[in-house]
Amino acid sequence: VQQVFRQLFYMINAVALNNLLLRKDVCSWSTGMQLRFNISQLEEWLRGKKLQQSGAAQTLEPLIQAAQLLQLKKKSSEDAEAICSLCTALTTQQIVKILNLYTPVNEFEERVTVAFIRDIQTHLQERNDPPQLLLDFKHTFPVVFPFNPSSITMDSIHLPASLNLDFLHKV
Question: What residues have CB less than 8 Å from 55, skipping those under 6 apart?
Fold first, then answer.
């Protein structure tokens, strides 16, 4: 059950983040607020179902950081440093793309300046990120089946002849 929800939450993360990276109309402060609220509801649900150890919440980390990025101030060099230290689960390309797509929804917000984006790129140039913008939503985590040893010993097993397993021999 834990592995299923980890995979499901990864897919939610990948599809939501990819939509955020591809759609200018959703890159705003209010979307960041809505995303963070929805993610907190998912995390609360995991806690309620006692699935917090499944790793499902950790798969949402890039989406959480993208939501926080949409909500942070984006003006000074200190803001750039804060963004760089906060957004460790996002690649440089993803951070820059979100900042380029950021669209103010009211008169109190301002567009992200080109100088600020260059400042971010300067801070992040030492990172060795893969040149990946979108997440692979078809990625699957390996399934792990726990080993439960049987109390039945191999020499006590009788194989019926009707199974045609002549290649198996008792030693």
Answer: 2, 6
Q: Give the pLDDT confidence of 58-94 residue by residue, as tens digits.
A: 999 999 999 999 999 999 999 999 999 999 999 999 9
Q: Report whether pLDDT(113) > 90.
A: yes
3-state SS, the chain, equals CHHHHHHHHHHHHHHHHHHHHHCHHHCCHHHHHHHHHHHHHHHHHHHHCCCHHHCHHHHCHHHHHHHHHHHCCCCCHHHHHHHHHHCCCCCHHHHHHHHHHCCCCCCCCCCCCHHHHHHHHHHHCCCCCCCCCCCCCCCCCCCCCCCCCCCCCHHHCCCCHHHCCCCCCCC
- Burial string for 23-47 (b: 16+ CB within 10 Å, else e) reads eeebbbbebbeebbeebeebbeebe
Please tell me the distance from the alpha carbon of residue 134 to that of residue 147, in angstroms, as a whole number: 36
For the cut 90, the answer to whether the pLDDT of residue 135 exceeds it is yes
